[in-house]
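Notes to self after the call with IL:
- keep both proteins in one doc
- input above output, always
- annotate only the second one for now

Protein 1:
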Amino acid sequence: MRSQINKSGTSIAANIAEAVYAQSTADFISKLSIARKEANETKVWLEILHEGKYIDQESFNSIMSDCEELIRILTSIIVKIENRSKG
């Protein structure tokens, strides 16, 4: 499980970094969408770790809050760019 959360968690940063040099708006949105999916997967692994008592409540709350905030930020950016490219 530790390996899985490490993979999904680091993939978020890698995809955001790739989005910085996206070749097009569609590529930018795609990279951020992948980052958002990886953040969502990370949430699942956090829940599994918490339910299995591998992380305490305080750590879980803090990390989960950060993960959810990151998903909100990525979603906001994606929606704004999509709306801007439509109009």
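Protein 2 (the one to annotate):
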Amino acid sequence: MTARPGVVTDLKFLGTLGVPIILTQLSQMGINVIDAVMAGRVSPVDLAGVALGGNFYFPPVVLLSGVAMAVTPMISQMHGAGKESGGGAVVRQALWIAIGGGLLTMALMVQFGEAGYRLIGIDEAAIPVATEYLTYMSFAVVPTLAFFVLRYLCEGLSWTVPAMVVSFGGLALKLPLNVLFVYGGFGIPAMGGAGCGVATAIVMWLQLIVMIFIVRYSRVQRAGAFSRFSLPDFGVIWRLVKLGLPIGVTMFFEGTVFSIVTLLIGRISVEAVAAHQIVFNVGSITSMIPVALGVAATIRVGYNVGAKDNPGARRSAYVALAAALAFAFLAASALLLLRDTIAGFYTTDTGVLATASGLLIILALYQFVDDTQTTAIGCLRGYKDVRIPMIIVLIAHWGIGIPVGSVLARKSHQKIGMGSRFVG
């Protein structure tokens, strides 16, 4: 039996759109992996500090980037309807959201970061590194959000290559900058884990500059993003927020589960945080492929919806889900077979290594449910259907996951010292 022509076409589109997105996501996660590996080589305290700093940084950035993600389905449906020239007005207002939300987030991080760690009761040894890292990372918020807006414009127009090229350039630059600021050199003192934040801020500003140049002078210029200056238009901003806020809240609920878990584990020990951070990094890498499939599905489904091809939109969604399930099987198999090797890449500490290896078993089982639901949410975004996924994620993660994990972790830590495994 041969595949139907429509299915083959959708697979080709998923490949054309999805492969650059996958590489973009992996290169962006590579920045976090570099931070984890280099900080871990300095000390478990530096690794824990970077982990804790990231868990105050990423939730608000994820929320705001999710709001900006409304650009993708809006532009893709315009593209399908042949009205992409109207996308510039949408992008300019999304940039106002990025600037305003970014500056507010930056101020909150700098002002309340250390107080937040002390309020939660984080291991005292990790607080100085976490606070300093968070302060430096706060300077990356605005360029990160603005970069995402321009990336979503390109992706909405079915051009996913620019973000891939820029992200790989940032990854290539991140490594030497990390070496310089983490370990010191050329008159710059060694900053340990906090130096990772300095390097990231520099990389994000440079990536934004390059992306602005691409949008201004490439084929994307037909959307007119920089054809004129626009003051805030609260009508358009409200449309973006109305569509994007459920996307951002969904991503926030998912992302903050891992942040809350890390903070809870921070009350156990530095070693437990370090082990969990290793698994979180690995899980973030594996999740990038279903996330990318979901983004590709959003683009393809949205295009078909804009073109009034509803059967084609459904077919695109089913093809994306099948691809996600196939990847889940491969990822789970690799995690089970190579868990000791993977954990050993991050640390030489025997205690951290043993705990991380055990947690990777749980991560392997997690692939099947997480990969498919992540891609399914991306499919629904192509229809601009964003509220029901938000409600489901809220109930599953915050109504069930966090309370149950917190109770099991506390009891197991008290009895058998296995808290991080139950929270994970």
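Annotation: The CA atoms of residues 332 and 365 lie 6 Å apart. The radius of gyration is 21 Å.
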